Amino acid sequence: MASIIFSRLGKTISALALNWLKCIIALGLMLIVLVLLEGTFWPRGLSPMETGLLAISGLVGLTVGDTVFFGALNRLGARRTLLFAALAPPMTSLMAVPVLGEPLGMPLIVGMTLTMGGVVWVISERHSGGDHLEIRHDDGRMTSSMKWGIAMAVGAAFCQALGNVLTKLGGSQITALEISIVRLAFGVLGLTILVGLAGRLVGTLASMKRPKTAMMVVSATFLGTFLGIWLMNAGLRYTYVGIASTLSSTSPIFILPLAYIFDKERLTLRSVGGALVAVAGVAVLFLW
């Protein structure tokens, strides 16, 4: 749901500014919930080590990771960028084996392969209105923009994987809400610096004066960042990071019926087949 709204907002607000706005709003909402539940503005009982790990996780995942992801979107287009994003779950699992001591058994490998295979099958489908971006020069050499886009997309997947593992390391003793608050707080700090250096602070805040834009930003943030990050961190907190990362990467499957309903996109046999393969992979992960 949030992806559909954010894609429409992206036509009027820059990706970096939109990322900054959604993180600030989500952080504010989470702090309100924490005050109502715990009576405090900041998680209690965090050691300096745990705070440091979650801070680095927020900076790596939300500041650096999201920024280079948006850069890849501008250079590769959404479909190609999402294909590279499928690298994040296997990267996460490979990091988790030596760092967290998590197992990498055959059922987990099969489940991840089926799930991500289904997702890749769906997002690699060609559409008549697809990404019209220049890939190669006339002599066959890849364009500089495409090379940078690929580097950014791989970097974004790596940042997401590293952020997932650091979240698991630093958030083992606190709730998913508290994990989310610490990560978002430091992610917002990094994004504020980036937006300030880009000279977009005033313009970004001014865009929120338009009631329709403000309502769309808040709605998408509530669904995608407030609930999305909170639930994602709950997954990282309570199960293996490889499984949580794989499940969180199935958004392209969930968006199929939503795009059909709201954007009137046609459902093809390939997209439905890819969704069924991904669901089969999810079933294997839950049976494992």
Mean pLDDT: 86
Shape: globular
Count every beta strand, where a strand is a DSSP E run of 2 or more residues: 0
Q: What is the percentage of strand-forming residues?
A: under 5%
Question: Sheet bearing the most strands, described?
Answer: none
Reading the helices and strands in chain order gives HHHHHHHHHHHHH
Unreliable parts: none
Number of helices: 13
Number of domains: 1
Quick take:
By secondary structure, the chain is mainly alpha-helical.
Q: What do you see in this structure?
A:
The chain has 288 residues and is mostly helical. It contains 13 helices and no strands. The protein has helices at 2-9, 15-38, 48-76, 78-85, 88-100, 106-123, 144-170, 176-197, 201-207, 211-238, 241-248, 251-262, 269-287. The longest helix has 29 residues, at 48-76. The chain is globular, with a radius of gyration of 19 Å.
Blueprint of the fold:
Blueprint: H1 2-9, H2 15-38, H3 48-76, H4 78-85, H5 88-100, H6 106-123, H7 144-170, H8 176-197, H9 201-207, H10 211-238, H11 241-248, H12 251-262, H13 269-287
Describe the structure using short key phrases.
single chain; 288 residues; mainly alpha
